[in-house]
Amino acid sequence: MAIILGLTGGIASGKSTVSNMLDQKGYTIIDADLAARKVVEVGQPAYLAIVEEFGKGILHKEDETIDRAKLGNIVFHNDEMRKKLNGIVHPAVRGLMLSEKDQAIETGKNTIIMDIPLLYESDLTWMVDRTIVVYVNEETQLSRLMKRNQFTKQEAASRIASQFPLKDKVGLADAVIDNNGTIEETEKQLEKILKDWDLRP
């Protein structure tokens, strides 16, 4: 019986770093962000539903792909529109991730990693058996985000504030990786979890 692990964290917490480590160790990663990009590719059902709802004005002229900035501007300031968009995209993303999971199980995988940034915010814990949260303290998160995205302190702080606080996610997790230290320390913690839970790729 395959084990489904939910991997999550917060913006600039280092979740992608841990996801890459697992990938290099041969684990199957199903990435929610990647799935969200796939379901809105030209011609996909979610793409057609978005164009129908928001009009062709949100498309790039040259290739008819969705202009994320334009769509983002519409939904950022309008709750109702954002709910409509999420109502189209979220079920499509879940569907794609679950079918990728089924395919991985069919090929004999023992452990499947669901990399879901908004695992708790979107109430998706039903999709996984256990959860790992990648944690950093607020100062580290702030400085990493400012450096990574060239944000001002205020911009970075507002991005962090828009998410469920990392310290609250820690209380909900089955295991926590403290990513305040070095990469080596992070990897050591990951390996301990994999060993303790007896998780093979």
UniProtKB/TrEMBL annotation:
<keyword id="KW-0808">Transferase</keyword>
<feature type="binding site">
    <location>
        <begin position="12"/>
        <end position="17"/>
    </location>
    <ligand>
        <name>ATP</name>
    </ligand>
</feature>
<dbReference type="Pfam" id="PF01121">
    <property type="entry name" value="CoaE"/>
</dbReference>
<dbReference type="InterPro" id="IPR027417">
    <property type="entry name" value="P-loop_NTPase"/>
</dbReference>
<dbReference type="InterPro" id="IPR001977">
    <property type="entry name" value="Depp_CoAkinase"/>
</dbReference>
<comment type="function">
    <text>Catalyzes the phosphorylation of the 3'-hydroxyl group of dephosphocoenzyme A to form coenzyme A.</text>
</comment>
<dbReference type="GO" id="GO:0004140">
    <property type="term" value="F:dephospho-CoA kinase activity"/>
</dbReference>
<comment type="similarity">
    <text>Belongs to the CoaE family.</text>
</comment>
<keyword id="KW-0173">Coenzyme A biosynthesis</keyword>
<keyword id="KW-0067">ATP-binding</keyword>
<protein>
    <recommendedName>
        <fullName>Dephospho-CoA kinase</fullName>
        <ecNumber>2.7.1.24</ecNumber>
    </recommendedName>
</protein>
<keyword id="KW-0418">Kinase</keyword>
<comment type="pathway">
    <text>Cofactor biosynthesis; coenzyme A biosynthesis; CoA from (R)-pantothenate: step 5/5.</text>
</comment>
<keyword id="KW-0547">Nucleotide-binding</keyword>
<keyword id="KW-0963">Cytoplasm</keyword>
